[in-house]
Amino acid sequence: MNTESLRTFLLVAKLKNFTRVAEQLFIAQSTVTNRVAELEKELATKLLRRDTRNVALTDEGKAVCEYARRIVEMEDACLNAIKGGGQQMHIGAVNAVYEGALKARILEGIAQGKMYRVTIGHTAGLLEMLWDGLLDVAYVYQDVRRSGYSCKLFSQDELVLLARADRNAFSGGIRRGQLADLPCAMCNFSLQEIGSYLRELFPSGKVFPFEVDNSNKVKDFLAAGLGYAFLPRGMVHEELEDGKFVEVVPVDFKRMTIPSYRICRTEDEADCF
Asked: Where residue 157 falls among pLDDT bands split at 50, 70, 90?
């Protein structure tokens, strides 16, 4: 399987536009078309639905996307190791853990001359990369026990309700019953426990004005003064210290504690944070 075709297909899946892919790769649009067609022929299946306006992945295309991404990442890791990039530590982290507990340590390490390659993702995907040897260490929300790997508690955080300082209508605290009508952003942290916690707080079927799978984007919603949102405290410690955001104190419900874990090969444990 030609990895050049896989890379082109992945970019088409991302941009949904053959012309933009051709421009980004500095090749003719016909070359993009031919590479995707060759991949479809090799796999004997349609990967894309195309018309004059839209490009969309088929179900088969979505499945191939995940494998293609892992194949090209493994090729990159192999080439990096051959070229002497072994001193660069490959770190995977859930975004909230990176922002809240890991970023400062990485920046300090860089200042000391160390080198890192960081991948931000969800727990399941990061663990797959770790098992495939694409990461040296993963900082995730899941406590995993696997032979040959070390799993240790890395950090503890709290999920807190936040608002922009000048838009908080609950300076005396908020009750659970008041959440139903709250204009609140909702983030998919890809952590079942957080989902269960939030579903219990909000009424069934509630529609949120903003739903996103990247917790950093929730901060944009708060900064614009559009409403409220739950985020790990560590992600917003700078905004809280600066007085940009304020925490809305729960009156009759408890904050959720969020543990994160460091997972790496047992022999690599001494080199990890």
From this structure: very high
CA distance 235 to 218: 11
Residues near 115 by beta carbon (within 8 Å), at least 6 away in sequence: 87, 88, 89
CA dihedral 97, 101, 104, 108 (to 10 degrees): -100
pLDDT at 52: 65
For 86-141, the pLDDT digits (tens) are 578 999 999 889 988 999 999 999 999 999 999 988 888 899 889 888 899 999 99
Which domains occur in the chain, in start order?
3-73 (1.10.10.10), 85-155+260-271 (3.40.190.10), 156-256 (3.40.190.10)
Sign of CA dihedral 194, 198, 200, 201: positive
Tokens (6 digits) for 15: 């941009």
Burial of 85 (0-12, 13-18, 19+ CB in 10 A): middle
**pTM, rounded to two decimals:** 0.68
Strands 149-164 and 228-232: antiparallel
Question: Is 237 or 73 the better-scoring residue by pLDDT?
Answer: 237
Q: How remote is the C-alpha of 152 from its chain's centroid?
A: 21
End-to-end alpha-carbon separation of the chain, Å?
Answer: 37
